[in-house]
Amino acid sequence: MEKIVRLLFGRTAKNSAVLVGANIAYGLLIMLFIILSSRTLGPERFGLVSIALAIFAISFDVLSLGTSQSLVRFVSVYIGKKEPGKALEFAHSIFKLRTAQAIVLIIVSPLVGWVLSEQIYQNSDLFLPITLSVAAGSFLLISDFFILLLQAYEKFGRSATTQLSIAILKLVLLAVGLLTGNVTILSITLAFIVTPLLGLIIGFALAGRIDILLMGKFASSYETGIYSVASRLNTGFILVGSSFASVLTPKISRVIHQKEELQRQILLIAKVVILLIIGIIAVALASTWFIPLIFGPVYQESVLVFQSLSLAAIFFAVSIPANVSLLALGHSKLIGLLSLLQLVIVIVLGWLLIPSMGSYGAALALIITYMISFLFSATYAVKAIFT
């Protein structure tokens, strides 16, 4: 118990509090953005916006596979070895890669926009939002680099400030649209996607999406909107879990050559994850009243979808100790392969389940995906650390 208390109230806990607190605040601000947008647009038009925003996120997710984890892990290791020159050299390599990827995104964005809007979704209204979303993924690639670099150097306060600045700017742009009466699919999309660039400027001064795309293809815009509200709420669980993992990765990376200490830290993390799971269950149960209250009665159908997605979040949470330990051991390629495996599984299952089950098919696809990922990562981590 004393060890758990130290983990909960020591330096790691303080860093976790800063990052988790900032991410909770970020999540609440983004949720406010979603609430205002969804209530103003209605489920059908909000469903189209969700498709564009999912593409924006996936443009980043695909290109950042492996590099995000590697940046935090290796910079932290070099700092722990008192080799700041190597840390900067590695960070510079990642930055050059991200810059090249950003340029490619901007170049191919019109083609991707045409293919997805005209050939896949057969809705010309989506061409400009999707094109801009793909191009804006370049902003996210670069701003994410600086946020992760700050975390690797354990500058969590500055990292949190940069993140919050991005969320606040989203709301400011949305408020301008609401006050001027300019609330359209394009304006809402722009308010969400351009802010990483603006947040990056401030950052310089300070130093589940595939499922939505498949819903847009195989379900109505209305049902996509219903699912998107539940999915956005579920992202809050992922934010908290990811924040916890982000703080722990540099700490665990510094004890990779001390097997007993590494084992002890991983077991302590596993015990803390239990508290996170209890919180997920409590929020899922409370969703029966707060979703209709916040989003309006028209989103009542989102309740059961959100509760289903909460099970996926639990599998994500129990994967945290394994994923952190694998990153600490330098198995970032394995994490990248697992991410790719998740992408393939959710696409295949979504393709099979959504046409017949709708929102619940998308939720089931995500549950199975996270469960398989947990089994793979946990099995490998246990063998690497405890045998």
Brief digest:
The protein has 15 helices and no strands. The chain has 387 residues and is mostly helical.
Structure description:
By secondary structure, the chain is an all-alpha fold. The protein has one domain. Helix content is 89%, strand content 0%. It has helices at residues 2-9, 11-63, 67-80, 84-120, 127-152, 156-180, 185-193, 195-206, 210-218, 221-253, 259-295, 302-318, 320-328, 332-357, 359-386. Helix 1 (2-9) packs across helix 11 (259-295), helix 10 (221-253) crosses helix 13 and helix 13 crosses helix 15 (359-386).
Biggest β-sheet strands, sense, barrel: none
Shape: globular
**Which value, in Å, is the CA radius of gyration?**
20 Å
Helix-strand category: mainly alpha
Please supply descriptive tags for the structure shown above:
0% strand, mainly alpha, 387 residues
Reconstruct the topology from this structure.
Layout lengths: L1 H8 L1 H53 L3 H14 L3 H37 L6 H26 L3 H25 L4 H9 L1 H12 L3 H9 L2 H33 L5 H37 L6 H17 L1 H9 L3 H26 L1 H28 L1
Helix pairs in contact: 1-2, 1-11, 2-5, 2-6, 2-7, 2-9, 2-10, 3-4, 3-5, 3-10, 4-5, 5-6, 5-7, 5-8, 6-7, 6-8, 9-14, 9-15, 10-11, 10-12, 10-13, 11-12, 11-13, 12-15, 13-15, 14-15
